[in-house]
């Protein structure tokens, strides 16, 4: 599975962004899909994940972020609202738990 993220950028505090992750090479319908983020010198942390049973979120983003998937389009999304400076990070899409990764997209909140 190849994953490519898009939608990152620079936004003001309180703003919104929508990240997308397009998969190719295999349909993602059978995979648990997730978003992770990482800042320099820190471990990559899980932000949100979604599978056939539902979705889960890190406490730090609950109520502000929403993960969704469109299996027909082989796409994963992360809608981010009320962004904070601490949301600044490189955001990565993952499939199959942590089996497959995209190259990431940078989100900067200031």
Question: Keywords for this structure?
Answer:
mainly beta, 110 residues, 7-stranded mixed sheet, 4-stranded antiparallel sheet, globular
First-to-last CA distance: 34 Å
Shape: globular
Chain-averaged pLDDT:
96
Total number of beta strands: 11
Structure, explained:
This protein is mostly beta strands. It contains no helices and eleven strands. The strands form two sheets. Strands 2, 4, 5, 6, 9, 10 and 11 form a seven-stranded mixed sheet that branches. A hairpin with a 4-residue loop joins β7 and β8. The termini are far apart. The mean pLDDT is 96.
SSE blueprint and pairings:
Elements: E1 2-6, E2 9-11, E3 17-24, E4 33-38, E5 45-51, E6 54-57, E7 65-70, E8 75-80, E9 89-95, E10 100-101, E11 105-109
Parallel strand pairs: 2-11
Antiparallel strand pairs: 1-3, 3-8, 4-5, 4-9, 5-6, 7-8, 9-10, 9-11
């Amino acid at each position: 599975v190849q994953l490519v993220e898009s939608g990152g950028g620079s936004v003001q505090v309180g703003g919104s962004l929508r990240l997308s992750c397009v998969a190719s090479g295999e349909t993602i319908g059978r995979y648990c899909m997730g978003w992770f983020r990482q800042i320099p010198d820190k471990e990559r942390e899980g932000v949100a994940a979604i599978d056939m049973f539902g979705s889960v979120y890190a406490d730090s983003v609950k109520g502000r972020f929403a993960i969704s998937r469109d299996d027909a389009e082989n796409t994963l999304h992360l809608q981010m609202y009320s962004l904070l400076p601490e949301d600044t990070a490189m955001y990565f899409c993952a499939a199959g738990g942590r089996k497959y990764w995209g190259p990431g997209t940078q989100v900067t909140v200031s």
